Amino acid sequence: MLIDWFTVAAQVLNFLILVWLMKRFLYQPVLDAIDAREQRIARELAGAAAKQAEAGKERDAFRQRNEAFEQQREAMLGKVATEAASERQRLLDEARAAADALLASRRQKLRSEVANLNQAIQKQTRHEVFAVARKTLAELASVSMEASATAEFIRRLHRLNEGDKSRLDNAFASATESVRVRSAFELPEAQRVAIQQAVHQLFASDLPLHFDTADQLIGGIELSVNGQRMAWNIDAYLSALEDEVSQLLRGNDKPPPPGPLDGAAAA
Question: What residue numbers bound the domain in which 157 lies?
């Protein structure tokens, strides 16, 4: 078989031209496209890696913020719980203090009411006792008792202290009206004369004595001149005793004022 070298050469030339053309117009663009695609994929991968790293940073930051928030929440819950417990204790203390104050007020009020009731009972009892005593002594009074009262009255005139004697001296010296002498019963003439003589002897007075009776006097005699009074009677004694009892019941340590039995008293 004969070989046509011209044809072989022409085919080889055509093949080489085809390879050059394919490389020039086909393979190179494909390679360039592949390179471009690889570069784009590489850029996208790099971008994805960057985004993934950023996402990781954001995740870590979010986790840190979440942990900080949890810590703040726990701290705030603890603070609120502490404040609530403190407020609860304060309210309990205030309520307890208010209850104690109310209880103390009620106790004080009750004590005051009991004290007032006791005072009222004591006062009423005291008045009743002395009223009965006055009534009993008034019923037992007699003329003979008035005679004894006259003797006791004259004796007390002679035993006046200097102050009472001086006041009565001044009263007699400045008196322009008669001297008044009162008794529960009408005094006999002898007792009137005895009183007149005692007054004249003690006070050097010639003023007449005016005698009259007074139902409120119990077994005693009262002399009054120019606003000054000298008295001895059972009613005055009971009044002084009643005042002393009242002071003792009130717990008063001060000594009672001198009663009618201790000398003259101002009107």
Answer: 143-266
Residue 60 lies in a domain: no
Nearest partner of 122 among 238, 236, 245, 237, judged by Cα: 245
Sign of CA dihedral 26, 32, 33, 35: positive
Residues 6+ apart with CB under 8 A from 226: 171, 172, 174, 175, 176, 177
CA 164 to the chain's CA centroid? 50
Q: Rounded to whole angstroms, how far apart are CA atoms 106 and 112?
A: 10
DSSP alpha helix (H) spans, 141-221:
143-158, 162-174, 189-203
Tell the burial category of 64 from Cβ atoms under 10 Å away from its Cβ (0-12, 13-18, 19+). exposed
In a domain, 132, yes or no: no
Count structural domains, the chain. Answer: 1
Distance between CA atoms of 163 and 108, rounded to whole angstroms?
47
20-72 per-position pLDDT tens digit? 877 777 777 777 788 888 888 888 888 888 888 888 888 888 888 888 888 88
Among 258, 264, 185, 192, CA closest to 218: 185
Residue 26 resides in a domain: no
Residue 80 lies in a domain: no
